[in-house]
């Protein structure tokens, strides 16, 4: 009997330890940015829901590769979650000749949190107030209009090169070293154009320091209803989107995947959080299931493969 009770105590102690083990959300970007803020908000809410610590660990570097490699090698027990963007799964596999992770083999997609459609914004001095006027100007003065990105193969670079390809124009790519530098470069007049998210553009737009010519996606943003989409202007191939999503290491328990997805979906569906923290900041809320997310990534990766090929971008 004593041995039986001792065995039960061991089982209960192991179960309690498993429930209180901290869950890490490894964010592939530095502290302070939109994805980091979202990760911390979700971690706080999951901590309350689960009654166990959920902590954020920032692992920036090498275009999200540092974080992806760390999570790919983590124990597949549901205690390590990767929060990253489309760069990790849709772009990097086509941009790098070799990666320390396999985008399909090493991870299980859990859910896409949000989709972000980017704007094509311009310095107010550019004598073009519409996409058509920009294309006409670029054709009249080839090689004289610059656009900023945050590196070869980044979302703005791929969008800019696809626009050049489909419109038959010559724009000059100017890569900057950080995502936060492109819009200030347009405001300062160092370059004329860039692609940027709504959140980082709203202040300068309202202040008249930049102007918006078009936005990606199938429909206009309710925050900027006057800005037409590339699709309605005749350029549906110019995709400017980015997304934030959660992943766990391959072979993680199905129950853990389902739990993370279901409880994260509840957070995304909270009316106040959804409106104030997501929609009002320019995010399209998604909350896709693991199967839906996996199918989306395959389509997105194929599309980005074409964009990378057209851009000629490569990374070591």
Report on this model:
α6 links the parallel β6 (145-149) and β7 (171-175). This protein has two domains: 17-115 and 242-311, Bordetella uptake gene, domain 1 (D-Maltodextrin-Binding Protein, domain 2, 3-Layer(aba) Sandwich), CATH 3.40.190; 119-215, D-Maltodextrin-Binding Protein, domain 2 (3-Layer(aba) Sandwich), CATH 3.40.190. The protein is built from eleven helices and eleven strands. The chain has a six-stranded mixed β-sheet with strand order 2-1-3-10-4-11, sandwiched between helices. The protein has a five-stranded mixed β-sheet with strand order 7-6-8-5-9, with helices on both faces. α4 packs across α11 (290-311). By secondary structure, the protein is of the alpha/beta class.
Return the domain count: 2
Mean pLDDT: 92
Low-confidence stretches: 4-18
CATH class of the largest domain: Alpha Beta
Classified in CATH, the superfamily of the largest domain is: Bordetella uptake gene, domain 1
Shape, principal axes of CA atoms = globular
Q: Could you say what the CATH topology of the largest domain is called?
A: D-Maltodextrin-Binding Protein, domain 2
